[in-house]
Write a structure and sequence with these properties.
This protein is an all-alpha fold and 81 residues long. It has one domain. It has two helices and no strands. It has helices spanning 9-30, 45-80. Helix 1 (9-30) packs antiparallel against helix 2. The longest helix is centred in the C-terminal third of the chain and has 36 residues, at 45-80.
């Protein structure tokens, strides 16, 4: 019988989010083009990129969590059979 060990994905996800945030911050700090207002509410391109990057990372994290749950269910079912 196989045992399932946590793969530390939450630590990886947090590290990835931090890296993404730092990279976007560095990019926007060094580029005047990112400081130009993009829409009528004053949101800059940099703000939009940061928001979209975090939303995407959150979606990926949710998919990973869902897949881990399905894996556990499959392992549980295979042990029963």
């Amino acid at each position: 019988m196989r045992t399932v060990k946590p793969n530390g994905s939450s630590e990886i996800d947090q590290s990835l989010e931090k890296d993404i945030g730092e990279n976007i911050h560095e990019l926007t700090r060094n580029s005047a083009a990112f400081r130009q207002p993009e829409n009528g509410d004053g949101e800059t391109l940099a703000d939009t990129l940061v928001r979209e990057a975090f939303e995407t990372a959150r979606e990926i994290e949710n998919l990973i969590t869902e897949l881990q749950g399905l894996r556990k269910k499959l392992l549980s079912n295979s042990n029963r059979i």
